[in-house]
C-alpha cells in the first residue's frame, strides 16, 4: 500500500514539474531602488538672522521614475521632511504641493554642488504657499522660500554666509 502511495506522489510530482517547466512565465519587471545617505545642515531664517542650525540626514532613494528625498532630523522626528521628484514630468512634490521648473536663471555655486540649481515654483499658486524652491536632482533641496513664514537652507556644511547667499538667490 505504501509503495503505491509513494509511486502516486512521485508521478504527481514529476507531472507537475513538467507542467511548471513547460509553462511560459512572463518575466516580471521589478523596479530597482538605489539609496544613498548624505549629511545636511539646516538653517532656518525667520528674518535675516538664522535660528540655530539643525543637523539632518538626507536619504535619497532613486528608482526608474521617482526620486525620494527624505530629510531626517537627528534630534526631532516631527521636523522630518519628504520631497518627491518625478523624472518624466520634472515635477517636485512637497506635502500636497506640486512645483515646476521656472524660467529663471539657475543658481550655481561650486562650493555647494557642481550642478546648477533650478528655481521651482508652485504649479497652482495660492496665498500663504511655500516657494520658491532651489533644487537639483543630484543634490536635493537647497533652499525653501516662504513669504509668510520661515525660509530654509540645506547645506553640506555650517556656512552661515553661504546660507544667506542662498536666501537672497531664492527671491531674485
Question: How would you describe what is shown here?
Answer:
Residues 1-30 have low confidence and may be disordered. This protein is of the alpha+beta class and 172 residues long. Strand 4 and strand 5 (91-94) form a beta hairpin. It has helices at 2-22, 160-170; strands spanning 34-45, 50-62, 66-73, 81-86, 91-94, 97-101, 107-109, 113-122, 130-136, 140-146, 151-155. The protein has two helices and eleven strands.
Quaternary arrangement of the chains shown? single chain
The strand line-up of the biggest sheet is 1-2-3-4-5-6-8-9-10-11
Task: Calculate Rg over CA atoms.
Answer: 25 Å
**First-last Cα distance:** 89 Å
Strand percentage lies at over 45%
Classify the secondary structure makeup into a structural class: alpha+beta
Please bin the fraction of helical residues: 10-25%
Number of helices: 2
Order of helices and strands: HEEEEEEEEEEEH
Record keyword descriptors for this entry.
172 residues, alpha+beta, 11 strands, globular, disordered N terminus
Give the SSE layout.
Elements (H helix, E strand, L loop, with lengths): L1 H21 L11 E12 L4 E13 L3 E8 L7 E6 L4 E4 L2 E5 L5 E3 L3 E10 L7 E7 L3 E7 L4 E5 L4 H11 L2
Antiparallel strand pairs: 1-2, 1-11, 2-3, 3-4, 4-5, 5-6, 6-8, 7-8, 8-9, 9-10, 10-11
Question: What can be said about this structure in brief?
Answer:
By secondary structure, this protein is α+β, with helices and mostly antiparallel strands. 19% of the residues lie in helices and 47% in strands.
Amino acid at each position: 500500500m505504501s509503495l503505491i502511495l509513494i509511486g502516486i506522489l512521485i508521478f504527481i510530482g514529476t507531472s507537475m514539474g513538467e507542467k511548471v517547466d513547460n509553462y511560459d512565465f512572463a518575466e516580471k519587471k521589478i523596479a530597482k531602488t538605489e539609496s544613498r545617505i548624505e549629511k545636511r545642515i539646516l538653517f532656518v531664517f525667520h528674518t535675516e538672522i538664522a535660528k540655530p542650525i539643525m543637523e539632518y540626514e538626507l536619504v535619497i532613494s532613486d528608482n526608474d521614475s521617482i526620486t525620494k528625498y527624505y530629510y531626517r532630523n537627528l534630534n526631532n522626528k516631527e521636523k522630518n521632511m519628504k520631497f518627491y521628484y518625478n523624472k518624466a514630468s520634472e515635477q517636485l512634490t512637497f506635502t500636497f504641493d506640486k512645483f515646476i521648473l521656472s524660467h529663471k536663471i539657475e543658481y550655481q555655486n561650486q562650493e555647494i554642488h557642481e550642478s546648477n540649481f533650478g528655481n521651482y515654483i508652485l504649479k497652482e499658486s495660492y496665498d500663504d504657499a511655500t516657494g520658491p524652491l532651489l533644487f537639483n536632482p543630484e543634490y536635493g533641496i537647497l533652499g525653501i522660500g516662504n513669504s509668510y513664514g520661515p525660509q530654509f537652507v540645506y547645506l553640506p556644511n555650517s556656512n552661515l554666509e553661504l546660507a544667506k547667499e542662498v536666501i537672497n538667490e531664492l527671491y531674485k
